[in-house]
Design brief:
The protein is mostly beta strands. It is built from 2 helices and 12 strands. It comes from Nitratireductor pacificus pht-3B.
């Protein structure tokens, strides 16, 4: 599996993210409990290989970007999801998705499929740049149509 360059950043404030689990609230054999906080004592590495793991490298992984990215790791039919707060040293992949590895993680609230979908819609709408007019030409622009039965286009 190709390795991605990672960037280390100390987190000043906790990062709110999304984490996937197996049905029994485990992730790669580690048992999690809602309301608990966990700390990784080794080197924080995003996507560690077997050699990294043997040296104690790793961390607690979560998705800080588009909420549905979590489906790349945990399919919706057989997984559970939770909002988490990540802190301490944070590592991000360069050129990958928005998965991060953190030295600390707090498991907050369980999220079910309807909440994940709502979070995904909010994520997209929060990043849209609404403009006036009948069409959009810029990147990430969205148009509101005011006429009854009208349609807006993005080109």
């Amino acid at each position: 599996m190709p390795r991605h360059k990672t960037i280390a950043t100390p987190a000043a404030a906790p990062i709110v993210a999304l984490k996937g689990f197996d049905q029994d609230m485990t992730c790669r054999g580690f048992q999690y409990v809602f309301g608990a906080t966990y700390k990784h004592e080794g080197e924080v590495i995003c996507c560690p290989d077997n050699d990294d793991l043997a040296r104690g490298g790793g961390g607690f992984h979560a998705i800080e970007g588009h909420p549905l990215e979590v489906f790349n790791y945990y399919p919706p039919a057989s997984s559970r999801y939770a909002t988490v707060e990540c802190g301490g040293e944070i590592r991000r992949q360069e050129g990958g998705d928005s998965k991060i590895a953190a030295a600390e993680i707090s498991i907050k609230v369980e999220m079910h499929l309807p909440e994940l979908i709502a979070a995904a819609v909010k994520y997209v709408f929060d990043r849209a740049k609404w403009i006036e007019g009948a069409f959009a030409t810029g990147e990430r622009e969205g148009v509101k149509e005011a006429k009854d039965g009208g349609a807006a286009t993005a080109s």
